[in-house]
Amino acid sequence: MKIRTNFPHTVTILENVWIPLADGTRLAAKIWLPDSAHNQPVPALLEYIPYRKSDYTSGRDAKRQAYFAGYGY
C-alpha cells in the first residue's frame, strides 16, 4: 500500500483543543486543519472514538486525518 505524503493543502495540527457543550461537558479534540480554512469555509469530518485521542488508534489516525486535511477537509 502506498502512503501519500504530498497533498494539495498544507495542514496545521491543533493539539488538545477543548470543545464546550451546552451542558458544561467538554470534549477533548485534536484538529487537523487545512491552511485554506484560515480564509474560507471548509467541510469538516468528525470522528468519535471511545479511547483517549493519543492511544490505540493514534498511529492509524495520523495517516488518515493527514490525508483528509491535505485534501481540504
Report on this model:
The chain is of the alpha+beta class and 73 residues long. The chain has one domain (11-70). It contains one helix and two strands, in the order ββα. It has one helix at 58-70; strands at 11-20, 26-34. It has a two-stranded antiparallel sheet. The chain is flat, with a radius of gyration of 13 Å. The two termini are 22 Å apart.
Write down the domain tally: 1
Low-confidence stretches: none
Radius of gyration, in angstroms, nearest whole number: 13 Å
- Helix/sheet category: alpha+beta
Most strands sheet: 2 strands, antiparallel
| Overall spatial form | flat
Beta-sheet strand percentage? Answer: 25-35%
Strand order of the largest sheet: 1-2
Question: What's the order of the H and E elements?
Answer: EEH
Count of extended strands: 2
In helices, the fraction of residues equals 10-25%
Number of helices: 1
Measured distance between first and last alpha carbons: 22 Å
Give the averaged pLDDT, no decimals. 82
Compile the SSE list and pairings.
Layout (H helix, E strand, L loop, with lengths): L10 E10 L5 E9 L23 H13 L3
Antiparallel strand pairs: 1-2
Summarize the structure.
The protein has 73 residues and is α+β, with helices and mostly antiparallel strands. The chain has one helix at residues 58-70; strands spanning 11-20, 26-34.
List keywords for this structure.
about 70 residues, alpha+beta, two-stranded antiparallel sheet, 1 helix, flat
